[in-house]
Design brief:
Length: about 375
């Protein structure tokens, strides 16, 4: 069987949801059928080393370091596609989706694009570009959740049959830990009896961390002295540290930065909290659920689809620190109910959101789009 050469396109490869999905795809694509290459339009990013460790070639064009250079990027990418005899381009996130489709058109190959977030702040020029490119230059659009699909149809006015929902998925092994709860806490300097909250994600406005800090302050005033593990880095870190200091939260907030030991961190937590203001379908949330943690998350993106009606986790409105504090306090006061939700959530994720299932469906999209262009 002839192997298809797939180029996976990003602007950069920081530690993030879409980028971790790329690693799942690269690990599990059938090597007898697919040969992968990765290209970054800008800088390599933190995950580039992990890509290369898989034996996948990575090309850094370095043409969009300050958001410009789109015309040069289209030309350079088209030349790369021809030179490497790429059969199909898979682009991720808006700028790569835009440049990738234009370059694929020049090179005469099909293009698949992935959209990972809902359209919380749709911009008219992006909507116009997506509509125009979807008419002739897009083989398929992969949406990470039904909510994302609805936004694509609502704002971009593309043909419904062009959009395929493939829910985000996780590498279940990353949620596992060989540590006991006590050992995991000891590593972090946490007391065995502490009520430990945790969240994983970029420290950006989207993730709503400021509301979680406000909720933590409210909980303290109510007599619940919880500890919060903040895992991740980003542009909001300085502001969040300032907020924590202003609220006199002190050692109750632990800024842990970027971490690879998520399974061990989950083992130390009592409750996973995701206060996002907008989201596609959070891999961090799915990973925490796979670890058996009860989850409190905001009603954004694909979250309600996964958690159900408080059956597999607890959903509340975004941007509401009062509601967040109330639900966390409820979980603390009802540990058996929280544990039942965590157990149900773990079973649901393992059955429906494994990376093996995701990659199988991605392969089916590749085959359909490639055959349609022959």
């Amino acid at each position: 069987m002839t192997r298809l050469r797939i180029l996976h396109l990003f602007v950069s490869l920081p530690v993030g949801q879409a980028e971790n999905l790329l690693l799942s795809i690269l690990r599990r694509l059938d090597p007898a059928r697919y040969e992968s290459m990765v290209c970054t339009l800008g800088e390599r990013g933190a995950l580039a080393t992990q890509v290369e460790a898989l034996g996948v070639p990575l090309v850094e064009l370095g043409l969009m370091r300050s958001g410009g250079g789109r015309g040069r990027a289209v030309q350079a990418l088209a030349e790369l596609l021809r030179r490497e005899r790429i059969d199909l381009l898979h682009a991720h996130l808006y700028h790569a989706n835009l440049i990738g489709r234009l370059a694929a058109r020049r090179a005469g190959i099909p293009c698949v694009v992935s959209i990972h977030n809902t359209y919380t702040r749709p911009k008219w020029h992006r909507r116009l570009a997506n509509w125009w490119l979807a008419r002739r230059h897009t083989g398929a659009i992969i949406a990470g959740s039904e909510e994302i699909r609805r936004d694509i149809l609502r704002y971009d006015h593309v043909r419904p049959q062009l959009v395929e929902v493939i829910p985000n998925a996780v590498d279940l092994s990353r949620s596992a830990s060989a540590l006991t709860r006590e050992a995991a806490r000891e590593r972090l300097g946490l007391a065995a009896e502490a009520y430990v909250l945790g969240t994983v994600g970029r420290l950006e406005e989207q993730k709503g961390h400021r509301f979680l800090l406000d909720a933590l302050d409210r909980l303290r005033a109510q007599g619940l002295d919880a500890v919060l593990l903040l895992v991740g880095g980003g542009r909001e870190e300085a502001a969040l540290r300032e907020q924590a200091a202003r609220l006199a939260l002190g050692e109750r907030v632990c800024f842990l930065g970027m971490r690879d030991d998520l399974g061990d961190l989950f083992r130390a937590m009592d409750l996973f909290v995701m206060p996002s203001l907008w989201e596609g379908l959070s891999l961090a949330m799915l990973s925490a659920m796979a670890a058996g943690l009860p989850v409190v998350a905001t009603h954004v993106g694909g979250v309600p689809e996964v958690l159900g009606d408080d059956e597999r986790g607890f959903v509340l409105p975004p941007g509401d620190a009062v509601a967040l504090a109330e639900r966390i306090a409820w979980c603390h006061a009802h540990p058996d109910a929280a544990t039942r939700a965590g157990t149900a959530g773990a079973a649901h994720v393992r059955a429906n959101y494994s990376d093996a299932a995701l990659v199988s469906r991605v392969e089916a999209v590749y085959e359909r789009v490639y055959r349609a262009r022959r």
